[in-house]
């Protein structure tokens, strides 16, 4: 059995960012960490990570910019959109954009649900 060691091929030094950018990244990381901790107590670590990622990605897609915090992303998207993201994550459904893409490509609902279970 071979072991694959994960190496970080991307190196980022502190000097690549301004002080403001570093503070913004720290604020974002802290916000995401708090959200994952709260959501993992309810849904588990895997589902919590999916929810946080999809909320942040949905905000980026909707506003064409990154949110400064997880809370800002939730407020910007609104309760209905966030509840939809949580519902889809908890029920192991594809993200809304993925589902629409698969329907455009002509995949049937049966094949979509089979691909989600794998």
Describe the structure.
By secondary structure, this protein is mostly helical. It has a domain of 76 residues. It is 69% helix and 0% strand. The protein contains 6 helices and no strands. Helix 2 crosses helix 3. The chain is globular and about 45 Å long. The protein starts with 18 loop residues before the first helix and ends with a helix. The C terminus is likely disordered.
N-C termini distance: 24 Å
Query: Fraction of residues in helices?
Result: 55-70%
| Alpha plus pi helix count | 6
The fraction of residues assigned to DSSP E strands is under 5%
Largest sheet: none
Structural class based on helices, strands and sheet pairing: mainly alpha
User: If you compute it from the alpha carbons, what radius of gyration comes out, rounded to the nearest whole angstrom?
Assistant: 17 Å
Give the overall average pLDDT.
82
Number of strands: 0
The dominant shape is globular
The residue ranges in which pLDDT falls below 50 over 5 or more consecutive positions are: 111-118
H/E element order: HHHHHH
């Amino acid at each position: 059995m071979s072991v694959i060691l994960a190496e970080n091929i991307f190196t980022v030094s502190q000097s690549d960012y301004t002080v403001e950018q570093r503070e913004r990244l720290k604020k974002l990381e802290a916000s995401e960490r708090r959200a994952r901790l709260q959501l993992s107590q309810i849904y588990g670590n895997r589902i919590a990570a999916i929810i946080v990622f999809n909320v942040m990605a949905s905000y980026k897609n909707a506003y064409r910019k990154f949110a400064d915090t997880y809370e800002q992303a939730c407020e910007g998207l609104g309760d209905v959109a966030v509840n939809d993201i949580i519902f889809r994550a908890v029920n192991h459904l594809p993200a809304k954009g993925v589902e629409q893409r698969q329907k455009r490509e002509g995949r049937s609902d049966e094949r979509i649900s089979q691909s989600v279970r794998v």
